[in-house]
User: Fold this.
Amino acid sequence: MAERLTMAEGSGAHTLHYEEVDILDALREMTGGRGPDSCIDAVGMEAHMPGLHGMYDKVKTTLRMETDRPGVLRQAVTACRNGGTLSVPGVYGGVIDKVPFGAIVNRAITVKTGQTHVHHYTRPLLERIQRGEIDPSFVVTHRVALDDVPEAYETFRDKEDGCIKVVVRPWA
Assistant:
């Protein structure tokens, strides 16, 4: 987790760790009680939350009464200011429960969703990297040969060895 916070802070972001602070209280304090203009749920169905909501979602998914864990989505809806924007590029695969949809409607929150359009952005981003406008190398923590991909995936999945992004070198 420390590497992610360092990356975010290195790019100028102010970070809040959900296990260390009450996210909603911290955001209200930072915005004078108004809430952020925009909130992003980039986590999606794999969110892990402490407390009652986290236990609720874990029980519901275990019993197959819910497919996803929308804890971050609930927080984002609650945190967003009236008239704000909620973006959800995080992946949700099915049924979620206890999302305060009335708050979205009654507080005029604009919701934007959809998975990232990778094919649309790949070429322009690659061209910017080739021109030196963007340097993504700070994200790459591991480089592996094609034969080592299964082990590298496990390292990434299990969040071991500070793994953030793996580059596969097929001819290595």
